[in-house]
Amino acid sequence: MVRIAVAGTGYVGLVAGVCFAEVGHQVTCVDIDENKVNVMRSGVSPIFEAGLEELMQKNYSAGRLNYTTDYQSAYRDADAIFIGVGTPEQPDGSANLSYIATVARQIAESVEKDCLVVVKSTVPVGTNDKVEQFIRDFLVNDVRVEVASNPEFLAQGSAVHDTLHADRIIIGTESKWAQEMLMQIYEPFHLPIVSVNRRSAEMIKYASNDFLALKISYMNDIANLCELVGADIQDVSRGMSFDERIGSKFLNAGIGYGGSCFPKDTKALEYIAKQHGYELKTVKAAIDVNEEQKKILYKKASKRLITLHGLKVAVLGLTFKPGTDDLREAASLENVPLLLEQGADIYAYDPVGAENFARIYPEGKHGRGSITYVDHIEHALDGANVCFIFTEWGEVKAITPEMYKKLMRTPLVYDGRNIHSVAQMQEAGVEYHSIGRKHTSKEGSKELKDNELQYS
Ligand code: UDX
C-alpha cells in the first residue's frame, strides 16, 4: 500500500485517485473547491462517468479514499503526489501551466518526507524538469523530492474502465527510486508498463493523441472525397480495417473530433514544434481538416435550403461524443450559433448535455432564431423541417427512418455520425445526408445519379 495524494479532481485526477484506492492504496484527493469536496464526500461524483460513483462510495466507506481542501495535511506525509490539474489551451495554442505551478509551490511548502511527485496532466516536453526544479527551489524541509511523468490515456465516458484496463502504463523517470515507486503503485493493476525517460513520456502522450486526431482527420478528408467520386466511406474504412498495420479503431468519419484532448493537444504540439523552429505539417493538416469538418453539415444544408429562417430545426446530440455531459469543442457549439444567426428555431435534445448547453445558450430567443430544450426526441422531430445529428447517442441511433418520415414536416436529415443506413432512409422516403456516403432523396427508392452527389 502506498500513501497517495492527488491534486485536482477533474477527469484525470478523480478517476486516477478512485482507481488507486480501488486497487488498495490509501488515497486523498485534494481540490480547492469546498463545495465539490463536500459533494464528493456525500458520495456524489462531480462528473458524469460510468461506474465512478459506485467506486467512490465503495472506497470512501472502506476508508481508502478521502477528499479535502487541506492540501498541507494531504501532501505532508504522502509517498507520492499525483498532479492531475488542467493545462488549458491559451489563445496561441500553448498550454497554460499556472495550475501546475500553483500545486508545485504548495507541494514544496508542505512535504515533510521524501516523496515522488507524478505529473499526470498533459504538459509540454521538458515541463517535468522545470516542475522538479521549481519544487526544489521552494522546498521548505530538507527532503528528497523527484518528479516523474505518467501521462493519462483515459477517454471520457469509459474513464474508469480505461484506467483499470489500460493498454499500457507509461512511466517517465530519471532515477531507479522513482521508477521503482511507480512500479509499486501500478503493480496491482497487472498492466504492461513502459518505462522511459521523462521527456519521452511527455512526448508519448502528445504523439499518441495527435496520431489519433490525424487518423480521424484523414478519414474525414477521404470521406469528403468519397462523396465526390461516388464511393462509400464506411465500405472504404471496413476494407482498410482488415490491414493490421492500419487497425480497425478510430476510422469513423464524421463531423470532426472534439473533447478536452485532441483539439488542445494537436495545437499544443504544433506550438511546441514552432517554438523549436520546426513546422509539424501533418498535425497542422489534422487541425485544418477538423476545423472545416465541424461545419460541413451546416454548409451542406445552406446549399440545399434557401433559408433556415423560421424553420423548425431538430438538433439531436450536443456533447462532443456519447457517454459524457462534456461540451468542450463539440461540433454543436460551432453549428448552433450559425443556425441561430440564420434565424432557425432550434429544438435540441441531449440526454445529459442539455443543461450545460443551456448555460451557454439559454432557452428562448437569440437574435432572429430561438432555442428550446426538449426531453424527448419525438418533441424535437415533431413538425420539424430539418434535423441535424451531432452526437451518436443510443436513443438517437434507435430512431427508425419511419419515425423521421412520420414526425417531421419535411423529412430532411443531416447526420454527422453516419448512424443510419442510407438504403433504409431511401426506402422510407427520407432525404438523408451523411458523411462520405450517397445522399438520398425524399422521393423514396429512386437511385441517385453520381453527379447528384456533389455538394460543393
Ligand atoms: C481522447 C483519447 O481517446 C484518450 O486516449 C485521451 O486520453 C484523451 O482524448 P476523449 O477525448 O475522451 O479521449 O474521446 P475519444 O473517444 O477519443 O473521442 C474524441 C473525439 O473524436 C470525439 O469527438 C469523437 O466523436 C471523435 N471520433 C473518435 C471520431 O470522429 N471518429 C472516430 O473514429 C473516433
Automatic annotation (TrEMBL):
<dbReference type="InterPro" id="IPR001732">
    <property type="entry name" value="UDP-Glc/GDP-Man_DH_N"/>
</dbReference>
<dbReference type="Pfam" id="PF00984">
    <property type="entry name" value="UDPG_MGDP_dh"/>
</dbReference>
<feature type="region of interest" description="Disordered">
    <location>
        <begin position="435"/>
        <end position="456"/>
    </location>
</feature>
<dbReference type="InterPro" id="IPR036220">
    <property type="entry name" value="UDP-Glc/GDP-Man_DH_C_sf"/>
</dbReference>
<feature type="domain" description="UDP-glucose/GDP-mannose dehydrogenase C-terminal">
    <location>
        <begin position="314"/>
        <end position="422"/>
    </location>
</feature>
<dbReference type="InterPro" id="IPR036291">
    <property type="entry name" value="NAD(P)-bd_dom_sf"/>
</dbReference>
<dbReference type="InterPro" id="IPR014026">
    <property type="entry name" value="UDP-Glc/GDP-Man_DH_dimer"/>
</dbReference>
<dbReference type="Pfam" id="PF03721">
    <property type="entry name" value="UDPG_MGDP_dh_N"/>
</dbReference>
<protein>
    <recommendedName>
        <fullName>UDP-glucose 6-dehydrogenase</fullName>
        <ecNumber>1.1.1.22</ecNumber>
    </recommendedName>
</protein>
<dbReference type="Pfam" id="PF03720">
    <property type="entry name" value="UDPG_MGDP_dh_C"/>
</dbReference>
<comment type="pathway">
    <text>Nucleotide-sugar biosynthesis; UDP-alpha-D-glucuronate biosynthesis; UDP-alpha-D-glucuronate from UDP-alpha-D-glucose: step 1/1.</text>
</comment>
<feature type="compositionally biased region" description="Basic and acidic residues">
    <location>
        <begin position="441"/>
        <end position="456"/>
    </location>
</feature>
<dbReference type="InterPro" id="IPR014027">
    <property type="entry name" value="UDP-Glc/GDP-Man_DH_C"/>
</dbReference>
<dbReference type="InterPro" id="IPR008927">
    <property type="entry name" value="6-PGluconate_DH-like_C_sf"/>
</dbReference>
<comment type="similarity">
    <text>Belongs to the UDP-glucose/GDP-mannose dehydrogenase family.</text>
</comment>
<keyword id="KW-0520">NAD</keyword>
<keyword id="KW-0560">Oxidoreductase</keyword>
<dbReference type="InterPro" id="IPR028357">
    <property type="entry name" value="UDPglc_DH_bac"/>
</dbReference>
<dbReference type="InterPro" id="IPR017476">
    <property type="entry name" value="UDP-Glc/GDP-Man"/>
</dbReference>
